[in-house]
Amino acid sequence: MDKSHFNTFIFSNANKIYYYVFCILKNSDQTIQIVEQTFEECWNKRKELSHSDLTPVFKIARDLAKNKIQSKTATGAVLHQHDEVNPVLLRFCELLKDLAPIQAEILCLRSLSRMSVDEISKIVGLGLNNVQSMLAEARKLVRAQVDPKGILKEFSCHELLTKYYAGSTSVEEEEQLRLYVSRMDLSEIPETDRELFRMFLKIGNAEIPITGSDILSNKMKELQTSKIQRILAKIKKQSQ
C-alpha cells in the first residue's frame, strides 16, 4: 500500500478505531496515544495491509489497548465529563459498564465500528457462533438498562428487530434499521430501541475530538518524513 492509499485508508477509518479503543480504555488521552501507536505500527506494516480490510488494523489497536490496561501506566477508567469527549459516547460506555469486557468489545465493534461477525471473530479470536451469541446477549443487557421492564418484550413488532436481538441481522439490515429510525419511518418500533439506534447513529457519525485529530495528523507527518528530512529540519531550526 503506497502513501496515498495508506493515508486515505487510515484517516477514513480513524473515527472507528478511536471509538473502539476508547470503549476499551475509557480515557481520552490514553486512547489518542494508542491510536497514534496503531498508526505507527500500520505504517511500518503498510506493505502487508490491504486498503479494503480493517481486521489487522483493529487487531493491532486491540493488542496495544490491552497491553496498556495491563501496564503500570494505565490510569483506569475515567468516565467523567470531558470538554472534548462526546457525551453520547460517555453514555454508551456507562451502558457497557456491567458487561463482560469481551461483550462490550463485540458490541462496540458491531454498533460503532460496524464490523461484520466474521471480522469481529478474527479481531477478538472467538468463533462465529460465540460472537453472535455474545452480541445478542450484550444487546439485550444494554436494552435492559435503558428499559428494564421492556426487556424481551415488543421485539415482534418488526421482523428486523427480532433478528437484531437474536444477533442474526446483517450489517446491511442494521443500517436499514438505523435509517428507518433516523427518518422516523417505523413508528411501531418501541422508543427504547429508537433511543439506542439514535445513540449508535450519533456516535458512528461523530468526529474525533479536534485536539486528538491534530495530534494524529502530526503523527502521520512525522512517520512519513524521512530521517534525512528530519535531520535537515533540525539543523535549520538550530541555525535560526
Task: Please describe what this structure looks like.
The protein is mainly α. The chain folds into 2 domains: 1-84 and 209-239, no CATH class; 86-203, no CATH class. 68% of the residues lie in helices and 0% in strands. It contains 13 helices and no strands. The longest helix has 19 residues, at 128-146. It is elongated. The mean pLDDT is 83.
Question: Which short descriptors sum up this protein?
Answer:
240 residues; mainly alpha; 2 domains; 13 helices; DNA binding; WH-like_DNA-bd_sf; RNA polymerase sigma factor 70 region 4 type 2 domain-containing protein; RNA_pol_sigma_r3/r4-like
What's the β-strand tally?
Answer: 0
Number of domains: 2
Mean pLDDT, nearest integer? 83
Radius of gyration: 20 Å
- Helical proportion, percent range: 55-70%
Give the N-to-C terminal Cα separation: 37 Å
Given as residue ranges, the uncertain stretches (5+ residues, pLDDT < 50) are none
Q: Helix and strand string, N-terminal first?
A: HHHHHHHHHHHHH
Give the helix/strand class: mainly alpha
The DSSP helix count reads 13
Describe the SSE topology.
Elements: H1 3-12, H2 14-25, H3 28-44, H4 55-70, H5 87-96, H6 101-111, H7 117-124, H8 128-146, H9 159-165, H10 171-183, H11 191-204, H12 210-223, H13 227-239
